[in-house]
């Protein structure tokens, strides 16, 4: 199993809505939200992951994802990972950090989005070897996202069926176009019962590094919480599937909060 494939699922993705400040009460998430996922490979539990909204201080919001292997997979890979982003009022990221530890890899990553200069600066330390990359874009860095912040952007601006949200994603020192297209709506079975969801295909367009995960499918609830209920992406053998198994701190008006 490639570690990058697992990370994509866990952290987890044709008109872009007008740029505007996000009012707190309009966001589908708020401080205190905690989502727990079970990750399965070929139907076998492989890992667990959490998505959290840690605080919301008026000048943006901080989000965090954590994951660890479980069961037999833990004996083989022994992987733990964490990623966090500070999002501004418009939900664009200011800085994102992450780390991953497994039996073979120790990785630390920091991405700074320098809006005034239009530069994205990535520092990555893998097994003691430092690599830095500088991506020069236009001043303002309008709709440029890391993987984690991109998920929350999709939640906030979930496109209707047949339409897509387009933004740029920064992965492995490269900036590429990401298209999140809603292809249909359907009912999804969850531990809380059946929930209607939008099925969103997320693709990284253009050339990609060999072995990189460039496509995922998300099922996002259609109530006011817009919770990611399920995610599927390919793995070297079969596919990885993440399913929501617990949700805390969600908005009271949402469907899951009423169950």
Provide tags for this entry:
disordered N terminus; globular; 15-stranded mixed β-sheet; mainly beta; 15 strands; 259 residues
Question: Overview of this structure, please?
Answer:
- The chain is mainly β.
- Helices cover 10% and strands 52% of the residues.
- It is built from three helices and 15 strands.
- It has helices spanning 3-10, 71-77, 147-156, and strands at 34-41, 44-56, 61-69, 80-87, 93-101, 106-114, 119-126, 129-136, 144-145, 164-171, 174-190, 193-204, 215-221, 228-234, 239-248.
- It has a 15-stranded mixed beta sheet with strand order 8-7-6-5-4-3-2-1-15-14-13-12-11-10-9.
- The termini are far apart.
Secondary-structure map:
Elements: H1 3-10, E1 34-41, E2 44-56, E3 61-69, H2 71-77, E4 80-87, E5 93-101, E6 106-114, E7 119-126, E8 129-136, E9 144-145, H3 147-156, E10 164-171, E11 174-190, E12 193-204, E13 215-221, E14 228-234, E15 239-248
Parallel strand pairs: 9-10
Antiparallel strand pairs: 1-2, 1-15, 2-3, 3-4, 4-5, 5-6, 6-7, 7-8, 10-11, 11-12, 12-13, 13-14, 14-15
What's a concise summary of this model?
By secondary structure, the protein is mainly beta.
H/E series, N to C? HEEEHEEEEEEHEEEEEE
Shape category: globular
**Extended strand count:** 15
> What structural class do the secondary elements suggest?
mainly beta
Q: Describe the strand arrangement of the main beta sheet, using strand numbers.
A: 8-7-6-5-4-3-2-1-15-14-13-12-11-10-9
Residue fraction in strands: over 45%
**Assembly type:** single chain
Report the end-to-end length measured between terminal Cα atoms.
36 Å
* Gyration radius, in Å: 17 Å
- Percent range of helical residues: under 10%
- pLDDT averaged over residues: 84
In DSSP terms (H or I, runs of 4 or more residues), the helix count works out at 3
Which stretches are low in confidence, meaning pLDDT under 50 for 5 or more residues running? 1-22
Please give the largest β-sheet.
Answer: 15 strands, mixed
